[in-house]
Design goal:
The structure is a homodimer.
Chain A: E1 4-11, E2 15-17, H1 44-56, E3 57-63, H2 64-70, E4 85-88, E5 100-103, H3 107-118, E6 122-127, H4 129-137, E7 143-149, E8 151-152, E9 157-158, E10 168-178, E11 181-188
Parallel strand pairs in A: 1-6, 1-7, 3-4, 3-6, 4-5
Antiparallel strand pairs in A: 2-9, 7-11, 10-11
Chain lengths: ~190, ~190
């Protein structure tokens, strides 16, 4: 059974994008700074960690809003993923490209289809925040890989919002740091 | 000149206390779990890190609300600190004990007095959240030492709330992990 891995970059103050997200500014104002560890400040270790998540993933899950924002601009009208990606959406987006399967009948259905595709590999939940929270608080996520960028963004899209669930226990599996991020790998206790 | 160090424990989802704080439950519901690294899961390294902040501090700054909540219950009517502590408050609390100086004329005054007391040692900003944010966003904080507990609390008192300031750059100085926390030491770029 495929593991479900949420792998995401967050500022120390909890934001995964800046405010004012548009197709032209898909990470919001200053939000690109979250990904310094993947671009301007990338070290060999950062590259290895990125390679690892890509190689370990047999399927990707992405939110409908993220798809719509990214597909024509940031992703240049084609899938940036080397494996099948599943878009969780309420209704089919008007612009659809190869490499993406659009699922409108809920998370259980997405997980089933992504799991079949991933086989022994992982299902990578790559965001946005709303999808990540649905997966996490719905009990689907087995591991959280979080890359904490050394910035305080102060506003934007928060990953973890208040919710009514009980405390979730995590187990620290691995901690690594590079100049551009502290990389923490957690197992979610169920 | 004394360095101002914010040293605080936060859940991965950004809370430094649970909801429902009272004198009887000073960390709020489930909030005591943040401090597992100081109690039930304490390792030798955790002890060393605690000792370090205590030994390096020449003065402590604490918020008026935290003082009022903690002094009669959690702190058993005496200062838990071995060095002078300064309480930042709008008006003098009715219950006052030795070891605390109560400052009602603002943060600049607190920093000046705490700095004189600390000498070459650090000024430790220990919370609560409101005071920590005032110090941080007011540009007073030189280092953030954050202990990220491996839990999602989901509700309670958030350390970092939205605010209007510009992005703050941090520099990762040191990263350590124990079963009960990932300990990250940042320098605040000014």
């Amino acid at each position: 059974m495929a593991k479900v891995v949420m792998d995401i970059t967050m500022s120390l103050d909890g934001f995964i994008a800046g405010p004012g997200i548009t197709q032209e500014v898909p990470m919001g104002i200053a939000g690109h700074r979250l990904h310094d560890w993947l671009f301007t400040r990338k070290t060999e270790l950062d590259s290895e960690l990125l390679k690892e998540v890509v190689e370990n993933s047999g399927a990707v899950i992405v939110g409908g809003h993220t798809y719509t924002i990214a597909i024509e601009g940031a992703w240049e009208k084609s899938s940036p993923f080397s494996v099948p990606a599943f878009v969780v959406c309420h209704q089919l987006p008007s612009f659809r490209v190869e490499g993406f399967t659009f699922i409108t009948d809920g998370l259980a259905s997405v997980m089933e289809q992504a799991g079949r595709t991933a086989g022994a590999k992982d299902i990578w939940v790559m965001g946005g925040a709303d999808l990540a929270r649905q997966c996490l608080y719905g009990g689907w996520v087995d591991e959280i890989h979080i890359h904490i960028a050394p910035i305080l963004l102060k506003k934007g899209t928060r990953l973890f919002t208040e919710n009514e669930g009980a405390l979730t226990e995590l187990e620290i599996m691995r901690v690594l740091d590079t100049p551009g991020a502290v990389h923490i790998y957690y197992k979610v206790r169920k």
